[in-house]
Amino acid sequence: MNEALSRNSYDDVPYDSYPYQQSHPSRLATMATLFGLTPPNVAKCRVLELGCAAGGNLIPVAEAFPDSWFVGVDLSARQIADGELMIRKTGLANVALRQASISDIDDTYGHFDYIICHGVFSWVPRDVQQKIFEVCANHLTPNGVAYVSYNTYPGWHMRGMIRDMMRYHAFRFDQPEQRIGQARALLDFLAQSTEKDTGAYGVLLRSELDLLRRQSDHYIYHEQLEDFNEPVYFHQFMARAEPFGLRYLGESRINTMVTGNFGPEVQKTLAVMATDQIQTEQYLDFVRNRTFRETLLVRVEAIPNWGIVPERVYGLHVACGAKATGKGGELASNTVAQQFQSPSGMVISATGPVFKAAMLTLIEAWPGTISFVELLQRAVAKLGRIATNEDLQTLALGLLNAYISSDLLELHATPLAFARVPGEKPVALVHARVRAADGHASVTNRRHELVKLSDMGLRLLPLLDGTRDRVALVESLTTKSLAGELTVRRGGQPITDADELHAGLTATLGPTLDSLARDALLVK
């Protein structure tokens, strides 16, 4: 949300610069692959981010793909300066941040395989919105994919009403801190005032208020109090994109495109009412009261095929953070079911031997990825036999159905490269080490997720540069503890004796390193 207004509010209240997993180039490439296109190789590509803030979404990806080139554009001088400092500290040479207006992007920028525009479109004037479409049209390579997120109706009708209330009250005050505080005060007042209202207005209002009251200050300031916040209906967004030669590919989260969750009657009605994918998506927004979209666009020459077939999974990589539940049974049995529970709590029951064996293989490898071809080989090896063509189709179809209908597993266009076991001289991700050294307790992992570090992890991570073995790490941590930079406790009481500190840290080091590895923060 970082384009200029009459003043640059992002210099006053910087937006927290976080990773957005749904905008990762590998995710965009995965969606393009599933919809029948051939996207550029993520490991050797060019990426442009519009509204990059301090590079929190771009820098970790640049570290992961050293043979790719990344450019971020943002108007906020303060945020660009913060990002450039991070780049200097990490030593990355394949990423550049530029303080510039989106409106100033011209032919000198060149072409990009992936263009990311998260949290910008709805919060800038109409002419800048048009420029975003123009940048996507003029700077995408022939097979490239653009990601644009924006607020949508009908869901934003209620949120827009609350925004109007907050702005009416908060803009009686001058300073950003005052406005944020007063906006929160109004939320509390509205929540108390409607506490006993059991009507539709009260129920809807409280649900929105509960969501907003949990948000950070920078979110309240830029989402609710900015001069511009223009939601659109999905069909309006696409009607404006199409004259620029842009075509709808899909959504970054494929499960939002699924109609099966509404039952056969709804599916049947949608098939009659909607004559194309655009209309189908719009009717789904009506049913869901959707508030936000993460739309993927391609050039008009690229023609997606939304009839997904299993063969498109063959070149992808798979990860699974689920767990096996229940009693399970014989893998080779076609009748004995094994249940798997996803991170959100969704449970599926599977009887197919190859799918069950593949799921157990993925769970063992978590948080790492396994290529589909290797997964098939390892799954049938668990069954004690050689893979057949039927196994190939069965596994691909099972994985595809699980991916589309649940959060049971993930598909990736590229493997996730990190160490699942700490090495003798552990090495952590560079940008994560830099952030931890600067005192930030939240860092981005190789899965492009934000990880909250423990106090021990925060002190340990900057030391993991490959120069220290475990003995040296304990010595360094002991020195930090004696200097008061790290508190080690036993029975709730701080340990101050050097020998006791050394013993306690020796016992704690291994589990902490293992935790960092499970969080995909180590490369060695």
Question: Any chance you could write out the topology, listing elements then pairs?
Answer:
Layout: H1 9-12, H2 25-34, E1 46-50, H3 59-64, E2 69-74, H4 77-90, E3 95-99, E4 112-117, H5 126-139, E5 140-151, H6 156-170, H7 176-193, H8 200-213, H9 217-224, H10 234-241, E6 246-251, H11 264-273, H12 277-288, E7 292-299, E8 317-319, E9 323-325, E10 338-341, E11 347-350, H13 353-365, E12 370-371, H14 372-382, H15 389-405, E13 410-412, H16 430-437, E14 442-444, E15 450-452, H17 455-460, H18 470-482, E16 489-490, E17 493-494, H19 498-518
Parallel strand pairs: 1-2, 1-4, 2-3, 4-5
Antiparallel strand pairs: 5-7, 6-7, 8-12, 8-13, 9-10, 10-11, 14-15, 16-17
Helix pairs in contact: 4-16, 6-7, 7-8, 7-9, 13-14, 18-19
- The helix count comes to 19
Kindly state the mean pLDDT as a whole number?
Answer: 91
Query: Under the CATH scheme, which class of the largest domain?
Result: Alpha Beta
Low-confidence stretches: 1-7
Q: Which class best fits the helix and strand makeup?
A: alpha/beta
Which strands sit side by side, in order, in the main sheet?
3-2-1-4-5-7-6
Major β-sheet profile: 7 strands, mixed
Tell me the overall shape: globular
Helix content: 40-55%
CATH topology of the largest domain: the name is: Rossmann fold
Q: Can you say what the CATH homologous superfamily of the largest domain is?
A: Vaccinia Virus protein VP39
Structure notes:
Strand 2 (69-74), helix 4 and strand 3 form a beta-alpha-beta unit. The two termini are 36 Å apart. Mean pLDDT is 91; it is low at 1-7. The strands form 5 sheets. This protein has a 7-stranded mixed beta sheet with strand order 3-2-1-4-5-7-6, sandwiched between helices. The protein has a 3-stranded antiparallel beta sheet with strand order 12-8-13. The protein has a 3-stranded antiparallel beta sheet with strand order 9-10-11, with helices on one face. The chain has 524 residues and is α/β, with parallel strands linked by helices. It is globular, with a radius of gyration of 25 Å. It contains 19 helices and 17 strands. Helix 7 (176-193) packs antiparallel against helix 8 (200-213) and helix 18 crosses helix 19. It folds into 4 domains: 9-152 and 231-258 and 290-299, Vaccinia Virus protein VP39 (Rossmann fold), CATH 3.40.50; 156-224, no CATH class; 310-412, no CATH class; 430-518, no CATH class.
